Amino acid sequence: MEEKQIKNWLKENWFKFGILIVLIVLVSGVALYLNNKNRLAEQERLDRITSEAKTKTEDEKARADQEQAQLLEQQKKEEQKQLANQATTAKNARISSQIIEFEDVLEGKIVNADINCSVLANYNNVMQYGGTDIKTAFPDSPETYKNKCSSAYSPLIFLRNKLIAEPELQGLRKILTDYLDAVKGLATYALDGGYSAQIIDKYSADFDKFRLNAREELSRLQRLYNVKPQYTGQ
Questions:
Q1: CA 93 → CA 4, 86, 150, 159, distances in Å?
Q2: Under the phi-then-psi rule, with left for phi > 0, alpha for psi from -120 to 50, and beta for the rest, what region is 41?
Q3: Half-sphere exposure of 101 (CA within 13 A, CB side)
Q4: Residues with Cβ within 8 Å of residue 41, at least 6 apart in sequence
Q5: Which stretch, 23-32, 36-45, 157-166, 179-188, has highest mean pLDDT?
Q6: What is d(CA 181, CA 45) in angstroms, rounded to the nearest whole number?
Q7: Residues near 151 by Cβ (< 8 Å), separated by ≥ 6?
Q8: Residue 126 and residue 120: Cα distance in Å, rounded?
Q9: 142-157 and 170-191 helices cross at what angle (nearest 10)?
Q10: Tens digit of pLDDT for each residue in 107-144?
């Protein structure tokens, strides 16, 4: 009886039962689809997080590398600047030393020879032509004037080729060299007994020009490189 009832129920409700099965299959399919979709969405989220983390790491590394490169470049520039400053300091020190040396060459040697050999030349002129009280104008012995000129002239003989200068001092070196050569010319003339007033006056005019130009250029360089003059009352 029960089996018959079941068959009758199935016969009467087969459509509903089919619909139920379809619904179950449909719900299962939807659930599976949604589950897969959620799983894919979650995987996409995880992939995005991983990608963003990787991108962030790469960006941070690139930024760190760029900062390191900038730091190294800055350090390189600082080192180059320090080397340039050291080179400039060393060069200025050489220039300052040469300025002091050139001042001594000018005031201590060339001008000294200029004065003493000019005195000898004028002494020779007076001895030749007279025209003044020799004892009053030249109270010392003839040998005294010759010795003073010779002693002042001697250092100039080998000095010319020793006047080595930085490019910034070439102008002063040229003036000193020309002045030195002119003084050597007068010294040789006076020590040989030269007495011509015309020649002596020509040397004197040249000496005045050389001395003025040398002192003006020397003074300019001393101010430029902050070098204190060693000689006063020039």
A1: 126, 10, 34, 22
A2: alpha
A3: 15
A4: none
A5: 179-188
A6: 94
A7: 116
A8: 10
A9: 140
A10: 999 999 999 999 999 999 999 987 777 788 899 999 99
Cα–Cα dist 149/166, whole Å: 31
Contact in structure between 103 and 211 (CB atoms under 8 Å): no
Quick one: which H or E segment has residue 124? helix 111-129
Share of residues in the chain with pLDDT > 90 (%): 54
- Residues with Cβ < 8 Å from 204, sequence gap 6 or more? 118
Whole-angstrom distance, CA of residue 163 vs CA of residue 112: 17
The answer on pLDDT for 104 being more than 60 is yes
pLDDT-based confidence at 228, cuts 50/70/90?
Answer: very high
Q: Which amino acid is residue 181, in one-letter code?
A: D
Q: What are phi and psi of 54, to 5 degrees?
A: -65, -45
Q: Which two tokens stand for residue 162?
A: 């020793």
Q: Which amino acid is at 168?
A: E
- Dig out the tokens for 159 from the structure: 């000095």
Phi, psi of 205 (to 5 degrees): -65, -40
Least Cα distance to 147 among 131, 127, 123, 167 occurs for 123
Q: For 108, phi and psi rounded to 5 degrees? A: -90, -20
pTM comes to 0.69
Backbone angles phi, psi at 229, to 5 degrees: -60, 140
DSSP structure string for 66-88? HHHHHHHHHHHHHHHHHHHHHHH
Q: How many helices (H) and strands (E) does the chain have?
A: 6, 0
